[in-house]
Structure to design on (223 residues):
């Protein structure tokens, strides 16, 4: 209930994890793009049982090859319906580790969910991401060996502002406009009013489709 104390606790935990050789990796699993601290890539994935001629953005896992990127995935009810987001997660981890000049690590994975669906989806999404404790895979022909020390899931809109709560006035509304949802989080005294938080399934994808439909109706062409 004390935002300043909560922020201090989070910083202390982060320092402790870093001192114990954990690799803390945050991934935003969007419907259009996967985002990490240092990379952004399209949520496209295409499976191939045969070895590809080139290995740029190729994930090799359990004898199969997956081309990462390209055309984005179709939006579904949730991200645990198939293995696509699991493979995209491995690609995101590999990209982050490579930037740190590492190919092995005890991973603390941080992910997010829309705040209005957080309670309903947190348990399933957490179990989905940490279903295997130890994983061997290749990305762009380089070997990776990771162990999941922990997977933590946060309300994604609140996570974006938690480090600056001390600068907020008593009343503020935080709005997170994503590709598929808009999360609205009213805050009072630097704390989310959970009873008023909502997620609207009309993000940028819907906006772009609406604009294109209107352009076609008025001009006979699309953007």
């Amino acid at each position: 209930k004390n935002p300043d104390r909560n922020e201090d606790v989070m910083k202390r935990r982060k320092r402790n994890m870093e001192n114990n050789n954990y690799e803390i990796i945050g991934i935003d699993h969007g419907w259009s793009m996967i985002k990490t601290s240092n990379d952004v890539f399209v949520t496209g994935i295409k499976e191939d049982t045969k070895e590809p001629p080139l290995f740029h953005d190729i994930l090799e896992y359990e004898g199969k090859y997956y081309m990462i990127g390209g055309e984005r995935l179709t939006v579904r009810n949730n991200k645990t319906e198939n293995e696509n987001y699991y493979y995209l997660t491995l690609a995101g981890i590999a990209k982050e580790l490579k930037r740190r000049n590492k190919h092995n690590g005890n991973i603390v994975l941080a992910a997010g969910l829309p705040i209005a669906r957080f309670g309903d989806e947190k348990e399933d999404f957490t179990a989905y991401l940490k279903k295997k404790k130890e994983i061997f895979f290749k990305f762009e022909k380089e070997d990776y060996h990771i162990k999941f020390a922990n997977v933590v899931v946060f309300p994604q809109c609140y996570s974006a502002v938690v480090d600056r709560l001390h600068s907020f006035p008593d009343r503020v509304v935080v709005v997170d406009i994503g590709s598929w949802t808009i999360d609205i989080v009213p805050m009072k005294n630097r704390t989310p009013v959970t009873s008023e938080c909502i997620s609207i399934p009309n993000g940028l994808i819907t906006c772009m489709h609406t604009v294109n439909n209107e352009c076609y109706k008025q001009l006979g062409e699309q953007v």
Remarks:
- DSSP finds five helices and 14 strands in the chain.
- The two ends are 48 Å apart (CA to CA).
